[in-house]
Every structure is written in C-alpha cells, then in structure tokens.
Amino acid sequence: MDALYTVVYELRTIAEMADKEMSMSGRVPDRLKGAGSFLMKVFGTLAGKGSKRVGALYVTCQLFKVYFKLGTVHLCRSVIRSIETARVFDFEEFPTRDKVTYNYYTGRLEVFNDNFLAADQKLMYALVHCATSKVNNVRMILKYLVPVKLSLGILPKEALLEKYNLREYLDVVRALRRGDVRLLRHALEAYEDEFLRSGVYLVLEKLELQVYQRLMKKIYIIQKQRDPSKAHQVKMDVVVKALKWLEIDMDIDEVECIMAILIHKNLMKGYFSHKSKVVVLSKQEPFPRLGGRPVNS
Predict the structure, then answer these.
(1) Which pTM value belongs to this model?
(2) Confidence label for 93 from pLDDT (cuts 50, 70 and 90)
(3) Residues 6 or more apart whose Cβ sits within 8 Å of residue 272
(4) What range does the domain containing 245 cover?
(5) Which member of 97, 151, 289, 295 has the lowest number of beta carbons within 10 Å of its beta carbon?
(6) How many domains are there within the chain?
(7) Domain end marker among 172, 200, 223
(8) Between 56 and 137, where is the model more confident?
(9) Model confidence over 251-267: pLDDT tens digits?
(10) 211: how many CB neighbours lie within 10 A of its CB?
C-alpha cells in the first residue's frame, strides 16, 4: 500500500503545482480537477478489493484536500456516504493517521453546516488521536474546534490559545467572558480576513447573542448586590446605559428586540413587560447554561 500512497499523494501535489503554473501563465487550471476524477476511480476500485480496502480512507482524505482546494466541498458527500454507510468498510480497520485526517475534514464540513454537535464529536476525535508532536496539525484542528466549543458555551483557556498560536481567538473568548459586545465586534473586524478564509466568520458572529446573555447576567448580579429583592427586574434604560458605556448606541426598541431573542433562544428565562419597559427574570436559573448544547436546541 505504501507505493499506492506515494502515487496518490504525488498525483495531488503535482496537480496543484501544475494548476498554479497554468494560472500564472494565463491558462485555465484544470489539472487538480482531473486528479480528483482519477482519485475517485481509485477509491471505487479499492472499495471492493478485500484487504486493499484499508487504502480507501487515505484516498478519501486526498480527495477531500482536492475538493476543499477547488471549493467543491459538496462532492465530499458521496465519498462520506460510502465510508460511513457502506457495509464493506469497518472504520476501525483504517490507520489512525487516516482516521484523524478524515474526522478533521468531515468535522469542518459539519461546521459549515452549523451542525455543531457532530462537528464537536468529529474534531474531538481528531484532536484526541492526533500525535501531540504534530503541533501544526493540532493547531489546524483547534482552529475549527475552538469556534465549535464557543458555540456550545464552552470557553477554552487562554493558555491553550497562546500555546498553539491561536491569538485571533483571544479577544473573542474575553468578550464572551466579560459580556463585552464592543470587544467581540473589534475582534471580528481585526481578524475578518482570516476568519473568512477559514469559513468560521459567521459562526463567530452568531456568538453575539451569548455575549448579550453574559452582559445581562452581569447587570443582574450587580442589581442583586444592591437590592436582592428587585434583582430579577431589569429596566431597559439600564441595559441601554450599559451598552452606551461599551460605545454601542442602541435605542430601547432595539434592546427590546434583543431581549425577546434571548428569551426565545432560551438564553434567558423570564418575560418582557412592554408597558413598563422591564424584563422580569425567572427567580430560578434566569440564565441557563448551554453546557455543550447549541443555542436553542
């Protein structure tokens, strides 16, 4: 199988280099697309070849790299169906290296589909089974696992982000801890290009609701310290002032809308009194923890 692995790898990498040169010379790059078609035939051949089936996952991973490079990730689905539903494969028979790569790419696909529980499962598998000596590989897995964990309400330690040079997530995590909407927006703006290239920008943008939840929780805690009997009643003008202090200009109508969404998404328990402009919070667990669940699941 080593000879097959070498040929398949070289085919993909040489096709990538050929496409790069063709683009530079003004020609239409089509070598990688052709390599993908050939690899698909190789995959089909290996699928029914007894002991040689073990090479099918390696070919699959090379196909994923081709499809991600070409921006045709939808083509991954047919290969995934063959691996995960066909009875001819026993996933555990494949080499660990290939299983890690496979779960990394399928985890990324689940991130793009906002299927965070499945993404968490696959990326965690890749992380746990990835050799710790492969620092760059661990970093690439964490690059997608971190936004998944954040979406599930789980915040990583800053030391982990520093260790694997994922500084772009530092202020995102700090914003979530502090309930600082301004800091989250600044972080997204500062690393916008990188987040867009990775395909996680929209995932991170949706974290703003969690930041509002933490801001409301902070207001609630402060009110509880001052007057425990009225802590569960949060006036809208108090929220407006807190946002203004963060240099976020919003009127009461906009704040009302955010409160309604927080309640609807089960990020905050209570009800809104439109007449008195007050959110009346539940006296029991007013701010439910996500605890590994996606928002509104």
Answers:
(1) 0.90
(2) confident
(3) 256, 259, 260, 263, 278, 279, 280
(4) 209-281
(5) 289
(6) 2
(7) 172
(8) 137
(9) 999 999 999 999 999 99
(10) 21
